[in-house]
Amino acid sequence: MPPSRTSPPPSPLPLPLGLTPSQQATFSRDGYLLLPDFLPPTTTTALLTETHHLLTTLPLATHPLTKFTTGDTSPHISDTYFLTSGDKIRFFFEEAAFSPTTGALTTPPALAINKIGHYLHALSPPFRAATLSPATAAIARDLGFRDPRVLQSMLICKQPHIGARVPPHQDSTFLYTDPPSAVGFWIALEDATAENGCLSFARGSHRRVGVGRRFVRREGGEGTEFVGVEGGRFPLGMEVEVEEGVDGEREEEYTLEEVRAGTLVLIHGNLLHQSERNWSQRGRMAYTFHVIEGERVYDERNWLQPPEGGFTRLGGEGV
User: Fold this and answer.
1) pLDDT (tens digit per residue) in 38-91
2) With the C-alpha atoms ordered 289, 139, 36, 124, is the resulting torsion angle positive or negative?
3) How far apart, in whole angstroms, are the C-alpha atoms of residue 7 and residue 200?
4) Fewest CB atoms less than 10 Å from the CB: which of 17, 260, 307, 308?
5) Residue 2, Cβ neighbours under 10 Å: how many?
6) CA quadruple 140, 141, 144, 150: dihedral positive or negative?
7) What is the pLDDT of residue 316?
8) What one-character DSSP code corresponds to residue 149?
9) Tell me: the pLDDT tens digits for 185-225?
10) Which H or E run contains 182?
């Protein structure tokens, strides 16, 4: 069904550290939570400045021009540049930035990037500070994490005119632990609206739809593939509402959530969410990182493998 623009008012402003009981209840019920003004304007500006620095210093002459797509047959998924990006800052182009006939780049490089990833939280000082903060650690604690680990971080550029549609998906498909434990921390660096491709959510779907497949490295060969999940499909101890005989195969209603710059959106790893193409003249920069439970099984088949020393601890020693 098309997204509805009717949504409840944003959650109250968060306490200085952590989530209120009301905010925790909203996240548990809906599978996502909006926290307006999570970042002050000075921090948002600093992150945008760092983003533009990265975009304008892109080493185009040595770049393999790897494209990022969101379908099941993405060309990049067999690309070593992509598979070895877990401990690096790398750049992935929009498909629409290239000529469909000649394959030549037809968009200025700084306006052609789909995303930058996947180790900003370690290698970029401004993004490291925003990620590994007491505020994010307190939120992870209030979401029930015992050993929260940041395993990836990305800048999602959603460029004017060409920022691609992202179809409905669950983050735990791509960042699978057994049982599932991923939570996305998505921060708007610019206002996100219906016109420039804001997020929309199938409210409560995290309780209805188990993680049925996962994105993994191919066994005995290069590249990646989707395979069925053999382990847990829902987080440990979560009350589920799977309809008998349906098993998640149902039409979902999506709610658009327009947010202002500085808003943090928490996204449950099982929650179905999506965004439309940006046809507007305005970009929609966002920074996102994902946290998993360090006590869960994260195996060698996952496309993203931990760097030397393991995934980054959020909170406590090592931050």
Assistant:
1) 999 999 999 999 999 999 998 887 788 765 555 554 544 447 889 999 999 999
2) negative
3) 10
4) 308
5) 9
6) positive
7) 60
8) E
9) 999 999 999 999 999 999 999 999 999 999 999 987 678 99
10) none
Tell me how far CA of residue 38 lies from CA of 65, 185, 300, 316, in angstroms: 34, 11, 35, 21
pLDDT in tens, 181-190: 999 999 999 9
Distance CA 162, CA 111 (A): 9
Q: What is the rounded CA–CA span in Å between residue 33 and residue 15?
A: 14
> How far is it, in rounded angstroms, from Cα 103 to Cα 175?
31
Residue 313 has pLDDT above 90, yes or no: yes
Q: Is the dihedral of CA 86, 89, 93, 94 positive or negative?
A: positive
How many Cβ atoms from other residues are within 10 Å of residue 309's Cβ?
A: 9
Residue 272 C-alpha from the chain's centroid: 12
Residue 230 contacts residue 189 (beta carbons within 8 Å):
no
Six-digit token string for 144: 């029930």
| Alpha carbon separation from 112 to 70, 82, 127, 142, 164 (Å, rounded) | 16, 17, 21, 38, 11
Nearest CA to 231 out of 244, 245, 249, 212 is that of: 212
Tell me the C-alpha distance between 87 and 89, whole Å: 7
C-alpha–C-alpha distance, residues 119 and 153, integer Å = 6
What are 275's strand-pairing partners? Answer: 166, 199
Which residue reads 């691609």 in tokens? 164
The pair of structure tokens assigned to 210 is 């188990």
